[in-house]
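Help needed: design a sequence for this.
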């Protein structure tokens, strides 16, 4: 009997430890930060026309900085997140992680990311890393509770990791190639954001607080937001095609597949968004994210094959 009790205690302790680790890992928003790190790798590879250890290092440093910024964002939004179904179960609104612990993690990771960029890639990358941090945590996060214009710094901070990777290679920032890539990534973020918006609903207990915050759903009807998704997805598709017409991806197979990706994604998203169904919006969300992942992957592999 005592042995069985001991086993149960050990199992409960192990389960509790796994849950605690999960709560801490949730703070990092890895599903988003991995995209950010990959975009820095993409920017560096496109600048150098090859993949190297430096490309990987830049991606890791940007990933660390992005994770620190995400933890800080969780701290800033811990009350705000409680008003929405999608975010109310996060670690800090549920008080599963002490705010002090989250603050220490944020400070350490932001410092490591910025100092690493300064040490290994130079002052320009450090500067743009700092600008990304300011855009996300200093502008977007507080501004989204006050104005719909928060979408502007929100989009900008998603474009800057590409610039960090490009600057790490020592290439001029006025080069049309990097500007075109940044336009593609900026346009992708807008339908990505609007799909999340359609999925986001206020929790019943948070309705009063929710009504205090600006939101596009108070200006546009669901059908109008769906139209916005289709418009911005089409512009994103067009930007990829212009990028390909510039000859930026040289491998014929990868170039053709990228073109197919650009042509198909507006049709795929439009079908999923317009038709009503429980899984349509999640599928549209996954589709547009896989589309940009393929876009970056094609650019990276194209230069690996040269």
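Sure. Designed sequence:
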């Amino acid at each position: 009997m005592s042995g069985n009790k001991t086993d149960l205690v050990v199992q409960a302790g192990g389960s509790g430890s796994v849950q605690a680790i999960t709560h801490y890992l949730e703070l990092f928003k890895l599903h988003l930060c991995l995209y950010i790190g990959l975009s820095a790798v993409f920017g560096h590879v496109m600048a150098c026309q090859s993949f190297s250890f430096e490309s990987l290092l830049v991606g890791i440093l940007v990933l660390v900085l992005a994770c620190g910024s995400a933890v800080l964002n969780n701290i800033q939004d811990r009350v705000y997140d409680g008003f929405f179904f999608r975010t109310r179960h996060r670690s800090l609104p549920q008080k599963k992680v002490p705010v002090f612990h989250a603050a220490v993690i944020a400070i350490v990771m932001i410092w490591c990311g910025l100092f690493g960029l300064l040490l290994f890639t130079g002052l320009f990358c450090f500067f743009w890393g700092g600008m990304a941090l300011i855009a996300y945590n200093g502008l977007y996060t507080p501004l989204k509770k006050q104005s719909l214009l928060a979408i502007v710094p929100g989009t900008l901070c998603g474009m800057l990791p590409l610039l960090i990777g490009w600057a790490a290679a020592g290439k001029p920032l006025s080069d049309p190639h990097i500007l075109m890539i940044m336009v593609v990534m900026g346009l992708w973020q807008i339908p990505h954001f609007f799909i999340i918006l359609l999925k986001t609903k206020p929790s019943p207990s948070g309705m009063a607080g929710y009504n205090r915050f600006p939101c596009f759903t108070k200006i546009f009807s669901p059908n109008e937001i769906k139209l916005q998704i289709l418009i911005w997805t089409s512009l994103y598709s067009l930007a990829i095609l212009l990028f390909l017409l510039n000859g930026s991806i040289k491998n014929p197979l990868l170039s053709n597949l990228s073109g197919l990706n650009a042509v198909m994604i507006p049709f795929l998203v439009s079908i999923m968004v317009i038709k009503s169904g429980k899984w349509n919006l999640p599928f549209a969300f996954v589709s547009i994210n896989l589309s940009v992942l393929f876009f970056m992957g094609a650019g990276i592999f194209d230069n690996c094959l040269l």
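Confidence is low (pLDDT under 50) at residues 6-12.
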